[in-house]
Design brief:
Length: 155
């Protein structure tokens, strides 16, 4: 089995459908991923374990999706030196603005790269861009994907 390159983590089962877009985009780009549900508030030890296991399995980037107080991406960033990409989800204040602010207002030294509210596909593309610095096959797949964008709406 191929080692995972991206860990996708979300705080609740109700967000899985939204975060599945990251997994599907990564698959389209030929990047192995694993998805874990672990709440920063209700199961912090599970979050810590998921990050450690993913790193041992070869993960090089983490995508963390969260709504409402959106603590999960920041908690993940505090537990690892891997790049963390936050996906604010629209499950709290209208438009997901609370989740967005929680992710972009991280303290110095604990950054969370953040995409648009609900931007799970873009999180996957950003993860691919990070991995493309090291992996030629990811770079090639990303270039091919970008060519399709000129042909019509993203798939």
């Amino acid at each position: 089995m191929e080692k995972i390159k991206v860990l996708i983590i979300t705080g609740s089962d109700s967000d899985l459908a939204k975060m599945e877009e990251s997994a599907l985009m990564l698959e389209q780009l030929g990047i192995a991923s694993e998805t874990v549900v672990a709440s920063a508030h209700r199961a912090p030890e599970k979050v810590k374990q998921a990050i450690a296991e993913a790193a041992d399995a070869g993960a090089e980037v983490v995508i963390a999706g969260a709504g409402m107080s959106a603590a999960l991406p920041g908690v993940v960033a505090s537990m690892t030196d891997l790049p963390v990409i936050g996906v604010p989800l629209d499950s709290g204040m209208p438009g997901g603005i609370d989740a967005l602010f929680s992710m972009v207002q991280m303290p110095t030294g604990i950054p969370v790269a953040t995409v648009a509210v609900g931007g799970a596909r873009n999180a996957a593309v950003l993860a691919a861009r990070i991995l493309a610095l090291k992996y030629d096959d990811v770079r090639d797949n990303l270039k091919a994907y970008r060519k399709t964008l000129a042909e019509g709406p993203p798939r």
